[in-house]
Amino acid sequence: MSTIYLGFHFSVAPKELGSEILIAELGEKPFESFIETTDGFSAYIQKNLYTNDLIDDIYLFQSSEFNISYTIEEIDQVNWNEEWEKNFEPIDVDGKCHIRAPFHPKTTAEYDIVIEPKMSFGTGHHETTHMMIQHLLETDVADLKTLDMGCGTAILAILAEMKGAKPIDAIDIDNWCYLNSIENAERNNCHEIRVYEGDATLLEDKNYDVIIANINRNILLNDMQHYVDCLNKDGILLLSGFYTEDIPFIDASCTEKGLTFVKKFERNKWVSLKYVN
Fold first, then answer.
1. Continuous H helices in 188-233
2. CA distances (Å), 17 to each of 48, 64, 128, 152, 269, in order?
3. Which residues pair with 148 in a beta bridge?
4. Where do the DSSP E strands lie in the chain?
5. Which of the residues 25, 185, 218, 272 has an alpha carbon 20 to 30 A from that of 174?
6. Could you give the CA distance from residue 148 to residue 171 in angstroms, rounded to a whole number?
7. Architecture of domain 127-276 in CATH?
8. For residue 3, what are the CA distances in angstroms to 30, 44, 71, 75, 79?
9. Residue 202, pLDDT score
10. Alpha-carbon distances, residue 26 vs 30, 85, 153 (angstroms)
11. What is the rounded CA–CA span in Å between residue 227 and residue 149?
C-alpha cells in the first residue's frame, strides 16, 4: 500500500528570507521534504502524521513582515527523485567545492561531491550547509578523527574525507538521513565514514579532533556538553543551524565550557561559528 502524503504549497513574500525561516520552523514538525518553487516552496508530510492544529503555532503566520498563503494537495507516494531532478541546480562554494546531483556532469573542482538527498537535509543550497563547507575548506582536517553530527546527506562528512579526515563518524536521528548518508558516502567512494542512526547519547566514551554540528539552536544547546566532553585538546567545533540573534546563547554555552571562539560566517541572517578547545 502506498503512503498518502499531503503537499503544502506555500507562497511566501519576501520569498528568500521568509522561506528560510518558515522551512526552519516546519523542519521541527514531521515534514519530510522541501522543494523550492517559483514563489515559495512545497513541503511534504505523511497524511497520518498531520493534525489540524500542527502548524497553528508557526511564528511566521502571525508576523506582519511576511505575506504567506498556502494550498494543500493530497498525493500518493512522492517521486522524490523526479522532484529533485526538476528543482536541483549544481552549487559552487568559493570555487573549490562543487556539489551536484548524479545526473549532472563531473567538474574539475578540487572537491566534486555527488549528492542525491531524497528526503534528507543538506544539499549545500541552504546557508548553514554552505557556511559549514566554507569552514571545512579553510580547515586542515588531514588525519583528524571527525564527527558529523546531524549529518543529513553526509555532505560535510564526505567533504571532510576528501580533505583527508579519518576516521569519520556520521550520526543522524532520522532513518531517511541515516540511509541516505550511507548511499551518498558510497556514491562518493568514501571508505572512512561510518554512519549511525541515533542522537548524542551515542557519543559516550567517544573522542574526536573535529566535531561538525549543523542542527538547530535548541538541540545544540541541549547537546553542547556531549560535544565538549568528547572533543580532544586543541580540537575544533564547527556549529551552524541558527540565526544571528542566537549567537549570545550559543557563545555563552561554548565559552562557559572552556571553548574559544575563532571565526564566524554569516549568510542571510544564518550563522556558522568555529571554536577550539
1. 217-229
2. 30, 14, 13, 22, 8
3. 170, 212
4. 5-13, 33-37, 40-46, 67-75, 91-93, 97-100, 111-114, 146-149, 168-172, 193-197, 208-214, 231-243, 260-267, 270-276
5. 272
6. 6
7. 3-Layer(aba) Sandwich (3.40)
8. 14, 12, 20, 9, 12
9. 95
10. 8, 23, 19
11. 9
Task: List where CATH 3.40.50.150 sits in the chain.
Answer: 127-276
CA geometry: angle at 244 spanning 92 and 178, to 5°? Answer: 55
Domain boundaries 5-78, corresponding CATH code: 3.30.70
Please give the order of strands across the beta sheet that includes 146-149.
193-197, 168-172, 146-149, 208-214, 231-243, 270-276, 260-267
Question: d(Cα 135, Cα 273) in Å, to the nearest integer?
Answer: 9
C-alpha cell at 147: 564527527
Write the pLDDT tens digit of every residue in 203-244. Answer: 999 999 999 999 888 889 999 999 999 999 999 999 998 888
Q: Residue with C-alpha cell 522532484?
A: 83
pLDDT digits (tens, 9 = 90+) for 176-198: 789 889 999 999 999 999 999 99
The identity of residue 251, as a single letter, is D
Query: Cβ(13)–Cβ(63) under 8 Å?
Result: no
